[in-house]
Amino acid sequence: MVRGAFLSLLSTLITLLPTLSASAQNGNSTLTGTVTDGLGKAIARVTCKLLDGNDSLLAYTLTKSDGTYSIKNKPGARQITFSYLGYESAAAPLRPGKTRYDATLKRNAIELDNVTVTIDPITRRKDTLIYNVEAFRQQEDRSIEDVLKRMPGIEIDDYGQISYQGKAINKVNIEGLDLMGNQYNQATQNMPAEAVAQVEVMERNQPIKALEDKVKNDRATLNLKLKKDYKARPFGEVDGGIGVSPTIWNNGLTAFNIARKNQLMVSASMNNCGIDLSGMTHAMDYYGSQYNTEPLPQPFLYSPTARTPPLSKQYYLDNKSYYAALNYLHAFTKEQTLRLNVTWWRDNSLKRDSTFNRYVTRQDTVSIYENNKIRDKQDLVKGQLRYELNSRRWFINDEVSAMLSHGDALNRNGSNLGPIEEDVNRRTYYVQNVLNATLNTGPRLFEISSLTRFYRQTSDELASVQGGLPGQEAGPMASPVHYSAASMITRNRIGTSFSVPLGSLMLGYMLEYKHNNTAASYLEGKQRGSYWLHTIEPVYEIMLGDVDINVNLPVEYISYEYGGGRAKRRKVMFSPLVDADFTISTLLTADLTVGLIKGADTQATPFNGIIINNYRTYTVGTDSLQTSRTATVSASLAWLNTASMLSWNIYAGWQQIRRERYWSYLYTGGMTVISPVWRDNRHTSWSVVGNMKKIWRTPGISLKGSVSYSYNKELASQNGTEDYIRYSAASADVTLNWNKLRWLSARLTAAGNVTWKRPDAFSQGSNVLKNIYYTLGATLYPIAGLQIRADMSQATFEISHGQYSTNIFVNAGARYDITKTVAVMLTAVNLLDRRRYEESRFDGANYAYTGVPLRGREVMLGLNLKF
Question: What is the CATH topology of the domain spanning 1-118?
Fold first, then answer.
């Protein structure tokens, strides 16, 4: 029924799309011809576009070396156009029954001392879209990420994760080589935009050559093509800045050397002006990680607060942050590479906030307030060494990685209990090896994958409370708590695939073993738990023209034991899932997923006893294995028209998760106790998200927007009251850029959201809260090399019904390029000297208020050197 409804929706949309409308033209014919210049000489690589009556692109191709082309006619086609750099474009209207269209292009008459060159922003070569960077780059763009954000079909999140047509990409190559791995954001956020000539987007790219034409991949791969002047030589930037109120600084270094066989990137940064560098340590979604990804265990000890407000951290983050990275790749051949990636990060931040939480039940209301002053110190170093052989017959990669981190958070807190001093110290390390191998014999594929990781974490808490800890006698006291947790996991898979009618059949077997070992200073002995997980995984891939259907039918058997065999559980789980990709046209694609997934919670660390999380929070641990069943249905549509520079995607999804337990919360003025309740727990949600991006080149306008709605129904249990909470959220945002004039650019961003819930056992009101945000900005270019920018933003949050908190920020800056390699900069942040930010929200049945002090007005003078 769901599939039928979805296909009906597709049919309706297709009917409304002009590029897919019926036509008197013969859609089965092939158009051919030859393109020459005025002297009759053939012109190679001329772009031939097939357009409909609205000038929307239906198909395109490039002429061969002899000037000939061949392009499949499409329903609705009205004309074919021919364009090539340095020549005037030509067009030929299509006529019934005619299939040959020759063209003669005339050279442009241009003056050599005043040349203006216009290039096609996007061209296509088979399954690869080529974005010409100069067609999108604006004068204020510094990194290639700034330009990527302007390109139709490409989206980038706050950490630098890149998505194409709504799906995370495989990876980012530089000149065809994978230098960065899952840390490609370090390159995209630091590589100068002026160094990149083209961005190639290889659609539905299979990065493993041995799987080409064997296993489909619905994600794209990006490749950065450098300008000739930036190849095989060092290039980069050095930045330095110092300012006042108080003394602030911001310094950075980026160096690249991209050659045919060796690639190197070195980057470093340090600042105390509110720029968060932790994003440089975040791993991006990366191809080939389906069987080799395992999240790290969650720590027992954590800070009770430090809420992150929805503002730029430059306004409130009181920090001293440092980061350095080394990335090196050597290509032995075109198919064999060795790569080294090392990242170091240090952060010393002072986090301050005031929080008020109101926990509502039918009988009473519990209010908790805290004034926190947390000195948070973090150190992290991680690295990986990866060898890869990627040929048509063999794919082998082996990656050894390790991570070492240390964190210390000292919180001086004023709360319901009185003055509190709490110190949480945590040390973590792991060593991991990942191996993947594929052999393509022609008729068959053989695959092996393996993950082995050793992990250990130790953590300590020392808390002193004036008046005593909850449940203790009055008087100052100390509460030293020590935890240690160690785990070892190994996951090994073998598989094969071969051709069958209508597609291919993949068969796999996976064996996973995990052992956990935990200890607490207030409990005797160690607690041990382990499991064996067996998975048989048949996958039938059906290829029906422009429709690819994957039918996944995995069966899992888990054997779990705890405490040396005292507690055991065995479970068989079947998780059918069907995923269908539809290529409706060269412009429109769709995806439909339906599944019923059963699984075991193998991420939770088993613990039989009370876990002390912080000075007021206690969790009753569990040593039993929890299983869940997830029913899911989702559908998406994605449109990209490179001729009209319009892209959009729509996603709709429904999900219901049934778990065997839920958490019950007990709030008092002195403590919070979280206990597991083994009873049926259902969480139902559905959401709709839409994104669009449109560029009008002639007026110099670009428009980007998104809308979303989500609904959740989940069980809440606190202070003896239980009920299902039904809450909703709707949001919208739009960004408008204008870059028509060479001396002026302007931008507007506006966003708003509203949240509400239905009456329940905790509250009879709808608890509606509304927020709105906008930013206005402009950049002037009065003389060559000079940029002057200013922006103003306003955020208004509803604190309680009818009461609002408004924050207005004004920033300004200037940059003057003295030469091509030297520039001076001036930045001013928070010119209105705003000193406090406030917001409130409803978390299910509960109300939370947060106030955060701001940094105030700051001015910095900087110097930028390019090489």
Answer: Immunoglobulin-like (2.60.40)
